[in-house]
Amino acid sequence: MYNFLMTCILIVSVLIIIAVMMQPAKTNDALSALSGGADDLFAKSKPRGFEAFMQKVTVVLGAIFFGLALALVYLSSH
Fold first, then answer.
1. What pLDDT does residue 48 have?
2. Where are the transmembrane segments (predicted)?
3. Are the C-beta atoms of 59 and 12 separated by less than 8 Å?
4. The three-state (H, E, C) secondary structure of 21-38, written as one string
5. What is the pLDDT of residues 11-61, one digit of tens each?
6. End-to-end distance of the chain based on CA atoms, in angstroms?
7. CA distance 7 to 66
8. How far, in Å, CA of 30 to CA of 19, rounded?
9. Cβ-contact 2, 69 below 8 angstroms
10. What's the distance, CA 67 to chain centroid?
C-alpha cells in the first residue's frame, strides 16, 4: 500500500508541475511596482475559460497531493 501511495504522489506531483506550467503568465512590469499597481486597480476580473479551468485543476491536484501526503505519513508511522 505504501508503494502504491508513493507512486500516486509522484504522478500527482508531475501533474501539478504540468498544470502550473500551463497557466497563463501574469506579467507585472517595473512601473506597476513603482506606482503601487494603481493602474491595475480596476483591471482585476474573475478568470474565465481556460485560466479558470487550470486554476481549478491545480487546486484539486493540490488537495489530492495533500491527502496522499497525510496518508503516507499515517502509513509510515504505523
1. 81
2. 53-75
3. no
4. HHCCCCCCCHHHHHHCCH
5. 999 999 999 999 887 766 555 556 665 555 666 677 788 888 999 999 999
6. 12
7. 14
8. 27
9. no
10. 15
Whole-model pTM above 0.85?
no
Q: Which of 17, 4, 7 is nearest to 62 (CA)?
A: 17
Residue 64 to residue 69: CA distance in whole angstroms: 9
Query: What is d(CA 45, CA 20) in angstroms, rounded to the nearest whole number?
Result: 20
What 3-state DSSP class applies to 77?
A: helix
Is 12 exposed, middle or buried (CB count within 10 Å of its CB: 0-12, 13-18, 19+)? buried
Amino acid found at 61:
L
Sign, CA dihedral 54-56-58-61, equals negative
